Amino acid sequence: MAEVRTMEIRLYPNKSQERILNETLGHCCFLYNHLLEGCRNAYAERIRVPSAFDMNKEITAFKREHPELKEVYSQVLQDVAARVDNAFKGFFAKLKAREHAGFPRFRPWSRYDSFTYTQKGFRMVNGKLRLSKIGDIRTAGFRKGWGEPKTCIIEREGCAPHYRWKACLTYTYEEISTFVFDDMRTAVGVDLGLKDVMVVSDGTRYPNHRHLRDAEKKVAAIQRRMSSLEKDSVGYVKERQKLYHAFVRLNNVRRAERYDIVNDLVSNHDVIVIEDIDVSGIRDKSLGKGMRKSYRDASWGKLIGTLCTKAAEAGCTVVKVGPEYTSQRCSRCGRTVPKDLSERRHVCVCGLDIDRDLNAARNIRRLGLQALRWENREMERSPPGPITALGSL
Q: What are the residues whose beta carbons fall under 8 Å from the beta carbon of 163, sequence distance 6 or more?
Protein backbone atom coordinates (compact mmCIF):
# COMPACT_ATOMS: atom_id res chain seq x y z
CA MET A 1 0.00 0.00 0.00
CA ALA A 2 1.42 3.36 -1.04
CA GLU A 3 2.10 6.03 1.58
CA VAL A 4 1.32 9.72 0.97
CA ARG A 5 3.44 12.56 2.33
CA THR A 6 3.09 16.31 1.82
CA MET A 7 6.05 18.69 1.77
CA GLU A 8 5.42 22.37 2.47
CA ILE A 9 7.85 24.88 0.96
CA ARG A 10 7.94 28.67 1.01
CA LEU A 11 7.68 30.58 -2.27
CA TYR A 12 9.29 33.93 -3.04
CA PRO A 13 7.75 35.20 -6.30
CA ASN A 14 8.87 38.47 -7.86
CA LYS A 15 6.37 41.24 -8.53
CA SER A 16 5.34 40.01 -11.98
CA GLN A 17 4.97 36.42 -10.76
CA GLU A 18 2.91 37.55 -7.77
CA ARG A 19 0.65 39.49 -10.12
CA ILE A 20 0.16 36.35 -12.25
CA LEU A 21 -0.54 34.27 -9.13
CA ASN A 22 -3.21 36.71 -7.99
CA GLU A 23 -4.72 36.79 -11.47
CA THR A 24 -4.81 32.98 -11.52
CA LEU A 25 -6.69 32.99 -8.23
CA GLY A 26 -9.07 35.59 -9.65
CA HIS A 27 -9.79 33.48 -12.75
CA CYS A 28 -10.31 30.36 -10.61
CA CYS A 29 -12.65 32.25 -8.29
CA PHE A 30 -14.63 33.58 -11.25
CA LEU A 31 -14.96 30.08 -12.71
CA TYR A 32 -15.88 28.62 -9.31
CA ASN A 33 -18.76 31.06 -8.88
CA HIS A 34 -19.95 30.47 -12.44
CA LEU A 35 -20.04 26.69 -12.01
CA LEU A 36 -21.61 27.03 -8.58
CA GLU A 37 -24.36 29.20 -10.03
CA GLY A 38 -25.18 26.52 -12.59
CA CYS A 39 -25.36 23.87 -9.88
CA ARG A 40 -27.53 26.05 -7.65
CA ASN A 41 -29.93 26.74 -10.53
CA ALA A 42 -30.14 23.03 -11.31
CA TYR A 43 -30.87 22.25 -7.67
CA ALA A 44 -33.55 24.98 -7.52
CA GLU A 45 -35.21 23.61 -10.67
CA ARG A 46 -35.05 20.09 -9.17
CA ILE A 47 -33.01 18.64 -12.00
CA ARG A 48 -29.79 16.65 -11.78
CA VAL A 49 -26.89 18.70 -10.47
CA PRO A 50 -23.97 18.58 -12.97
CA SER A 51 -21.12 16.27 -12.04
CA ALA A 52 -17.43 17.14 -12.26
CA PHE A 53 -17.30 15.50 -15.70
CA ASP A 54 -20.22 17.64 -16.92
CA MET A 55 -18.63 20.80 -15.53
CA ASN A 56 -15.32 20.01 -17.26
CA LYS A 57 -17.14 19.95 -20.58
CA GLU A 58 -18.78 23.25 -19.70
CA ILE A 59 -15.37 24.76 -18.94
CA THR A 60 -14.25 24.05 -22.50
CA ALA A 61 -17.16 26.04 -23.92
CA PHE A 62 -16.87 28.74 -21.27
CA LYS A 63 -13.23 29.38 -22.20
CA ARG A 64 -14.35 30.43 -25.68
CA GLU A 65 -16.51 33.17 -24.16
CA HIS A 66 -13.77 34.24 -21.73
CA PRO A 67 -10.35 33.95 -23.41
CA GLU A 68 -8.61 35.15 -20.23
CA LEU A 69 -9.19 31.68 -18.75
CA LYS A 70 -6.72 30.31 -21.31
CA GLU A 71 -3.98 31.98 -19.28
CA VAL A 72 -4.56 29.34 -16.57
CA TYR A 73 -3.27 25.78 -16.87
CA SER A 74 -6.08 23.44 -17.91
CA GLN A 75 -5.79 21.02 -14.98
CA VAL A 76 -6.00 23.92 -12.54
CA LEU A 77 -9.40 24.79 -14.04
CA GLN A 78 -10.47 21.14 -13.83
CA ASP A 79 -9.66 21.19 -10.11
CA VAL A 80 -12.10 24.10 -9.72
CA ALA A 81 -14.85 21.85 -11.09
CA ALA A 82 -13.79 19.12 -8.65
CA ARG A 83 -14.09 21.59 -5.75
CA VAL A 84 -17.62 22.56 -6.72
CA ASP A 85 -18.52 18.89 -7.10
CA ASN A 86 -17.08 18.07 -3.65
CA ALA A 87 -19.01 20.96 -2.11
CA PHE A 88 -22.32 19.59 -3.37
CA LYS A 89 -21.40 16.01 -2.46
CA GLY A 90 -20.81 17.13 1.11
CA PHE A 91 -24.07 19.07 1.07
CA PHE A 92 -26.07 16.03 -0.12
CA ALA A 93 -24.29 13.73 2.35
CA LYS A 94 -25.34 15.94 5.27
CA LEU A 95 -28.90 16.07 3.97
CA LYS A 96 -28.97 12.29 3.74
CA ALA A 97 -27.69 12.01 7.32
CA ARG A 98 -30.38 14.48 8.44
CA GLU A 99 -27.77 16.92 9.67
CA HIS A 100 -27.74 20.69 9.41
CA ALA A 101 -26.39 21.32 5.92
CA GLY A 102 -25.01 24.67 4.85
CA PHE A 103 -25.75 25.37 1.18
CA PRO A 104 -22.57 25.89 -0.92
CA ARG A 105 -21.92 29.61 -1.13
CA PHE A 106 -20.24 31.92 -3.61
CA ARG A 107 -16.64 32.85 -2.86
CA PRO A 108 -15.18 36.36 -2.98
CA TRP A 109 -11.69 36.77 -4.41
CA SER A 110 -10.31 37.64 -0.98
CA ARG A 111 -11.40 34.24 0.36
CA TYR A 112 -10.29 32.11 -2.58
CA ASP A 113 -6.68 31.46 -1.60
CA SER A 114 -5.43 28.35 -3.40
CA PHE A 115 -5.29 26.51 -6.71
CA THR A 116 -4.05 23.01 -7.52
CA TYR A 117 -1.95 21.33 -10.20
CA THR A 118 -3.48 17.87 -10.02
CA GLN A 119 -1.06 15.78 -12.11
CA LYS A 120 1.29 17.78 -14.32
CA GLY A 121 2.37 21.34 -14.94
CA PHE A 122 4.88 21.60 -12.07
CA ARG A 123 8.39 20.40 -11.24
CA MET A 124 11.49 21.43 -9.36
CA VAL A 125 14.32 22.81 -11.51
CA ASN A 126 17.61 23.90 -9.88
CA GLY A 127 15.94 24.65 -6.56
CA LYS A 128 13.08 26.60 -8.16
CA LEU A 129 9.48 25.54 -8.61
CA ARG A 130 8.49 25.67 -12.27
CA LEU A 131 4.76 26.24 -12.71
CA SER A 132 3.08 26.09 -16.10
CA LYS A 133 1.82 29.52 -17.29
CA ILE A 134 3.62 31.23 -14.38
CA GLY A 135 7.37 30.52 -14.50
CA ASP A 136 10.21 29.55 -12.16
CA ILE A 137 9.66 30.74 -8.57
CA ARG A 138 12.37 30.89 -5.90
CA THR A 139 11.76 28.51 -3.01
CA ALA A 140 12.98 27.78 0.52
CA GLY A 141 12.65 24.64 2.60
CA PHE A 142 12.67 22.13 -0.28
CA ARG A 143 13.95 18.65 0.53
CA LYS A 144 14.44 16.11 -2.20
CA GLY A 145 11.52 13.68 -2.16
CA TRP A 146 12.10 9.98 -2.66
CA GLY A 147 8.62 9.30 -3.98
CA GLU A 148 6.62 10.18 -7.06
CA PRO A 149 5.20 13.73 -7.12
CA LYS A 150 1.43 13.77 -7.48
CA THR A 151 -0.08 17.18 -6.81
CA CYS A 152 1.02 20.73 -6.10
CA ILE A 153 -1.19 23.17 -4.18
CA ILE A 154 -0.28 26.85 -4.30
CA GLU A 155 -1.62 28.73 -1.27
CA ARG A 156 -1.81 32.43 -0.47
CA GLU A 157 -1.66 33.53 3.15
CA GLY A 158 -1.75 36.80 5.00
CA CYS A 159 -3.31 40.14 4.17
CA ALA A 160 -2.99 42.43 1.19
CA PRO A 161 -0.71 43.82 -0.02
CA HIS A 162 1.93 41.71 1.78
CA TYR A 163 0.99 38.13 0.98
CA ARG A 164 2.93 35.01 1.83
CA TRP A 165 2.99 32.19 -0.70
CA LYS A 166 3.67 28.52 -0.14
CA ALA A 167 3.45 25.28 -2.10
CA CYS A 168 2.34 21.90 -0.76
CA LEU A 169 3.92 19.09 -2.80
CA THR A 170 2.33 15.67 -2.38
CA TYR A 171 4.45 12.54 -2.89
CA THR A 172 3.53 8.85 -2.91
CA TYR A 173 5.98 6.07 -2.15
CA GLU A 174 5.97 2.46 -1.10
CA GLU A 175 5.11 1.68 2.50
CA ILE A 176 8.02 1.86 4.93
CA SER A 177 8.73 -1.38 6.75
CA THR A 178 11.32 -2.60 9.21
CA PHE A 179 12.39 -5.85 10.84
CA VAL A 180 11.97 -6.52 14.55
CA PHE A 181 15.07 -7.46 16.56
CA ASP A 182 14.19 -7.95 20.21
CA ASP A 183 17.77 -7.81 21.44
CA MET A 184 18.72 -4.60 19.61
CA ARG A 185 15.98 -2.12 20.45
CA THR A 186 15.06 0.05 23.40
CA ALA A 187 11.51 0.81 24.43
CA VAL A 188 10.01 3.78 26.25
CA GLY A 189 6.54 4.71 27.39
CA VAL A 190 5.20 8.23 26.94
CA ASP A 191 2.52 9.84 29.10
CA LEU A 192 0.79 12.99 27.82
CA GLY A 193 0.07 15.83 30.19
CA LEU A 194 -0.56 19.55 30.55
CA LYS A 195 2.18 20.69 32.92
CA ASP A 196 4.63 18.59 30.91
CA VAL A 197 3.57 17.84 27.36
CA MET A 198 5.32 14.48 27.53
CA VAL A 199 6.80 12.47 30.38
CA VAL A 200 8.97 9.55 29.24
CA SER A 201 9.44 6.38 31.26
CA ASP A 202 13.21 7.00 31.49
CA GLY A 203 12.56 10.24 33.40
CA THR A 204 12.84 12.72 30.55
CA ARG A 205 10.32 15.57 30.64
CA TYR A 206 9.23 17.94 27.90
CA PRO A 207 7.61 20.99 29.57
CA ASN A 208 4.58 22.79 28.22
CA HIS A 209 5.71 26.38 27.63
CA ARG A 210 2.10 27.60 27.18
CA HIS A 211 2.78 29.70 24.10
CA LEU A 212 -0.91 30.45 23.61
CA ARG A 213 -1.24 32.22 26.95
CA ASP A 214 1.85 34.30 26.20
CA ALA A 215 0.56 35.28 22.77
CA GLU A 216 -2.92 36.21 24.03
CA LYS A 217 -1.73 39.48 25.58
CA LYS A 218 -0.11 40.62 22.36
CA VAL A 219 -3.11 39.57 20.27
CA ALA A 220 -5.53 41.35 22.62
CA ALA A 221 -3.50 44.58 22.41
CA ILE A 222 -3.53 44.47 18.60
CA GLN A 223 -7.26 43.80 18.50
CA ARG A 224 -7.95 46.74 20.83
CA ARG A 225 -6.05 49.05 18.49
CA MET A 226 -7.91 47.64 15.49
CA SER A 227 -11.28 48.28 17.13
CA SER A 228 -10.48 52.00 17.41
CA LEU A 229 -9.55 52.36 13.73
CA GLU A 230 -11.72 52.66 10.66
CA LYS A 231 -12.00 49.42 8.74
CA ASP A 232 -9.70 49.13 5.69
CA SER A 233 -7.85 52.34 6.61
CA VAL A 234 -4.05 52.45 6.39
CA GLY A 235 -3.63 51.99 10.14
CA TYR A 236 -6.20 49.19 10.21
CA VAL A 237 -4.37 47.28 7.46
CA LYS A 238 -1.06 47.59 9.32
CA GLU A 239 -2.57 46.30 12.56
CA ARG A 240 -4.25 43.45 10.70
CA GLN A 241 -0.87 42.45 9.26
CA LYS A 242 0.62 42.50 12.78
CA LEU A 243 -2.21 40.26 13.97
CA TYR A 244 -1.52 37.80 11.18
CA HIS A 245 2.20 37.70 12.04
CA ALA A 246 1.39 37.11 15.72
CA PHE A 247 -0.61 33.98 14.87
CA VAL A 248 2.00 32.81 12.35
CA ARG A 249 4.72 33.12 14.96
CA LEU A 250 2.62 31.18 17.47
CA ASN A 251 2.11 28.39 14.95
CA ASN A 252 5.80 28.30 13.97
CA VAL A 253 7.00 28.17 17.59
CA ARG A 254 4.60 25.34 18.38
CA ARG A 255 5.63 23.38 15.30
CA ALA A 256 9.36 23.83 15.95
CA GLU A 257 8.94 22.66 19.54
CA ARG A 258 6.86 19.68 18.40
CA TYR A 259 9.49 18.58 15.87
CA ASP A 260 12.28 18.93 18.46
CA ILE A 261 10.42 16.60 20.83
CA VAL A 262 9.71 14.05 18.10
CA ASN A 263 13.29 14.16 16.81
CA ASP A 264 14.64 13.52 20.31
CA LEU A 265 12.34 10.52 20.82
CA VAL A 266 12.96 8.98 17.41
CA SER A 267 16.74 9.47 17.63
CA ASN A 268 17.13 7.77 21.01
CA HIS A 269 14.51 5.00 20.96
CA ASP A 270 13.36 2.28 18.60
CA VAL A 271 10.04 1.42 20.24
CA ILE A 272 7.79 4.22 21.48
CA VAL A 273 4.60 3.36 23.36
CA ILE A 274 1.92 6.06 23.61
CA GLU A 275 -1.66 6.29 24.81
CA ASP A 276 -4.47 5.67 22.35
CA ILE A 277 -6.70 8.54 23.46
CA ASP A 278 -9.48 10.63 21.98
CA VAL A 279 -7.89 14.07 22.20
CA SER A 280 -10.98 16.04 21.18
CA GLY A 281 -13.19 14.03 23.53
CA ILE A 282 -10.92 14.69 26.50
CA ARG A 283 -10.76 18.39 25.66
CA ASP A 284 -14.53 18.69 25.43
CA LYS A 285 -15.00 16.99 28.81
CA SER A 286 -12.37 19.11 30.55
CA LEU A 287 -13.23 21.23 33.57
CA GLY A 288 -13.64 24.88 32.61
CA LYS A 289 -12.55 27.14 29.79
CA GLY A 290 -9.02 27.50 31.12
CA MET A 291 -8.39 23.76 31.06
CA ARG A 292 -9.74 23.45 27.51
CA LYS A 293 -7.35 26.21 26.49
CA SER A 294 -4.49 24.26 28.08
CA TYR A 295 -5.41 21.17 26.07
CA ARG A 296 -5.40 23.20 22.84
CA ASP A 297 -2.09 24.78 23.81
CA ALA A 298 -0.50 21.35 24.36
CA SER A 299 -1.50 20.28 20.80
CA TRP A 300 -1.62 16.58 21.62
CA GLY A 301 -3.25 15.61 18.33
CA LYS A 302 -0.59 17.24 16.15
CA LEU A 303 2.16 15.92 18.40
CA ILE A 304 0.93 12.32 18.12
CA GLY A 305 0.43 12.64 14.36
CA THR A 306 3.94 14.01 13.86
CA LEU A 307 5.43 11.30 16.06
CA CYS A 308 3.70 8.49 14.13
CA THR A 309 4.76 9.91 10.76
CA LYS A 310 8.40 10.54 11.63
CA ALA A 311 8.74 7.24 13.50
CA ALA A 312 7.55 5.32 10.46
CA GLU A 313 10.04 7.17 8.24
CA ALA A 314 12.88 6.47 10.71
CA GLY A 315 12.07 2.75 11.00
CA CYS A 316 10.84 3.01 14.58
CA THR A 317 7.80 1.26 15.99
CA VAL A 318 4.99 3.21 17.61
CA VAL A 319 2.58 1.17 19.72
CA LYS A 320 -0.70 2.61 20.96
CA VAL A 321 -2.19 1.15 24.14
CA GLY A 322 -5.33 1.85 26.12
CA PRO A 323 -4.92 4.56 28.77
CA GLU A 324 -7.26 2.95 31.30
CA TYR A 325 -5.86 2.89 34.87
CA THR A 326 -2.31 3.75 33.76
CA SER A 327 -2.21 6.53 36.36
CA GLN A 328 -3.96 4.52 39.09
CA ARG A 329 -2.00 1.25 38.87
CA CYS A 330 1.37 0.93 40.58
CA SER A 331 4.20 0.35 38.12
CA ARG A 332 6.14 -1.76 40.67
CA CYS A 333 3.61 -4.10 42.28
CA GLY A 334 0.52 -3.67 40.11
CA ARG A 335 -1.82 -2.57 42.90
CA THR A 336 -4.52 -0.03 42.10
CA VAL A 337 -4.08 3.22 44.02
CA PRO A 338 -7.10 5.50 43.42
CA LYS A 339 -6.26 9.20 43.23
CA ASP A 340 -7.87 12.43 42.08
CA LEU A 341 -6.60 14.53 39.22
CA SER A 342 -5.19 17.04 41.72
CA GLU A 343 -2.91 14.40 43.31
CA ARG A 344 0.41 14.58 41.45
CA ARG A 345 2.31 11.92 43.44
CA HIS A 346 1.91 8.15 43.33
CA VAL A 347 2.40 6.63 46.77
CA CYS A 348 1.92 2.87 47.13
CA VAL A 349 2.09 0.51 50.11
CA CYS A 350 4.96 -1.29 48.39
CA GLY A 351 7.14 1.75 49.07
CA LEU A 352 7.07 3.33 45.62
CA ASP A 353 6.80 7.13 45.83
CA ILE A 354 7.23 8.78 42.42
CA ASP A 355 5.59 11.38 40.22
CA ARG A 356 2.15 10.42 38.96
CA ASP A 357 3.01 10.98 35.27
CA LEU A 358 6.24 8.99 35.50
CA ASN A 359 4.35 6.08 37.04
CA ALA A 360 1.85 6.23 34.17
CA ALA A 361 4.66 6.31 31.58
CA ARG A 362 6.16 3.14 33.06
CA ASN A 363 2.78 1.39 32.96
CA ILE A 364 2.32 2.46 29.35
CA ARG A 365 5.74 1.02 28.47
CA ARG A 366 4.85 -2.30 30.12
CA LEU A 367 1.55 -2.54 28.22
CA GLY A 368 3.31 -1.80 24.94
CA LEU A 369 5.92 -4.48 25.47
CA GLN A 370 3.17 -6.97 26.32
CA ALA A 371 1.42 -6.11 23.07
CA LEU A 372 4.65 -6.62 21.10
CA ARG A 373 5.30 -10.01 22.73
CA TRP A 374 1.79 -11.10 21.75
CA GLU A 375 2.44 -9.88 18.20
CA ASN A 376 5.73 -11.78 18.04
CA ARG A 377 4.01 -14.99 19.14
CA GLU A 378 1.47 -14.52 16.38
CA MET A 379 4.30 -13.99 13.89
CA GLU A 380 5.99 -17.23 14.90
CA ARG A 381 2.85 -19.08 13.79
CA SER A 382 2.91 -17.36 10.38
CA PRO A 383 5.63 -17.28 7.68
CA PRO A 384 8.49 -14.89 8.53
CA GLY A 385 8.64 -11.51 6.83
CA PRO A 386 9.06 -7.80 7.42
CA ILE A 387 6.82 -6.15 10.00
CA THR A 388 5.23 -2.89 9.04
CA ALA A 389 6.00 -0.09 11.48
CA LEU A 390 3.02 0.80 13.59
CA GLY A 391 3.80 4.50 13.27
CA SER A 392 1.17 4.90 10.57
CA LEU A 393 -1.62 3.68 12.86
A: 18, 22, 156, 157
